[in-house]
Amino acid sequence: MDRSLLPLFAVLLSPWTAVGDPEGPAPVDGAPPSKIAVVGAGIGGSATAHFLRQHFGPEVQVDVFEKGEVGGRLATVTVNHNDYESGGSIIHSLNLHMQEFVKQLGLKYRRSIAGKTAVFNGKEMILEETDWYLLDLFRLWWRYGISFIRLQMWVEEIMEKFMRIYKYQAHGYAFSSVEELLDSLGGSGFINMTRRPLSDSLLELGVSQRFIDEVIAPVMRVNYRQNVSIPAFIGAVSLAGAQNNLWAVEGGNKLVCSGLLKIANANLRQAQVNAISPVQSGEALQYQLSFTTAARTGSELYDIVVLATPLQGSVGSGVQFQGFSPPFNQLPGNYHSTVATIVHGYLNTSFFGFPDPRLFPFASILTTETPDLFFNSVASVCPVNISTGFRRKQPQEAGVYKVFSPQPLDKSQLKTLFRSYYSVQVTEWQPYSHYGSSQGLPPVELHSNLYYLNGIEWAGSAMEMSSVAAKNIALLAYHRWNRQTDMVDQRDLMHRIKTEL
């Protein structure tokens, strides 16, 4: 996780621009806001509601609008009386906000079930994990030299810098843009990483092309369903999520979202927000939200609005911005489509070179960038509730598998991957931004007291990235409302914090 800052003039010249003065009018009498709206009840929106409650106190009304299911891209499907993650499924051990959420909500960590991974190039397994760690290290060294060591040092350095955000946020500091946030963590190096392809950065590090093709590309395909031309910062986020120190929530990761809304005492409103309009009354600026529920259409006024839903491309929320000067509607950019197929059946291990399924030792298969391959990965998955006696199904048994692919699998493709199957459930997601090395980063402040959370996804998409953005927006909204400019976009924060201590 990383990024950096551009000079102000570069931000202003970027294709992502705010629609008004973020400072805006001050509250008339210094009173706290009366009503705050959050649009979207995924991890970003639910975490925002939680943090807003922490900073603004118990009196403010927090309404969370959600047109679909709470959890958003954290979702499950039911197969044979068990639930399985169909959306975001893993959390890194260094994700401190997510850890704190689980602790506060009294949730439990899901028991980890070990399983080996291999990389398939369409013809054969080119990389296989074994039961012996030292043997795996020797194989990596023999095939790739010290590329894997260089990669690990690079990711660890980036993660160490990113971890500074927790200290900054604990001391109450906020940032008015993604660029400012990243610059505070990693200087100009982080911003450069959002604009430079991952492959170029790794080659410059001395990582071999073979390692990039056979190890890095498969990880990008399974995590972001894109290739090694994605920006280096996003690649680093993805690679951090490919490490072994990962966890998930017992009962499903989406429980974090519903739990946060509950402890935030937020009003969940099952409604589609159709339009947002600024309403000026004397010195006070409010926003009118027009919405549609199953029973009616309506509108209400809010002092602060946080959009925690995508505004770009076909996946955009459909919110219209009316009465803004200059006018705007949809932000530029698109989201990348991917398909998650949950199959209950018998894996065709012969396709992977193992005619006898009893000899097939792998739980997860990643794939290289190969034109003939129609899927990105296939993995044996465990239910969100794991009993004490649970064991992973053996390949000769009927198990539950998750297949990621660019397009829905047709019958011939399903028959290629599975000898036979009982059920197939398909979820089409647009979970990640379609990353390009030349694009800018969306604004955080769209207008005075109008904030956009999902812009963080254009620097890196993960549950913790959304949680960090949620905390930042809650702090930013609080400081903007109370005119505490000394807590926003401050430089040399590490020195400041040491001085405060």
Automatic annotation (TrEMBL):
Q: What are the recorded Gene Ontology BP terms?
A: prenylated protein catabolic process; prenylcysteine catabolic process
Which GO molecular function entries does the Swiss-Prot or TrEMBL record give?
prenylcysteine oxidase activity
Source superkingdom = Eukaryota
Cofactor or coenzyme needed: FAD
UniProt entry keywords in alphabetical sequence: FAD, Flavoprotein, Glycoprotein, Oxidoreductase, Signal
Signal peptide coordinates: 1-20
Q: Where is the Prenylcysteine lyase domain positioned along the sequence?
A: 127-490
Family membership: Belongs to the prenylcysteine oxidase family.
The name this protein carries in UniProt is: Prenylcysteine lyase domain-containing protein
Q: Which organism is it from?
A: Echeneis naucrates (Live sharksucker)
What is the name of the gene encoding this protein?
pcyox1l
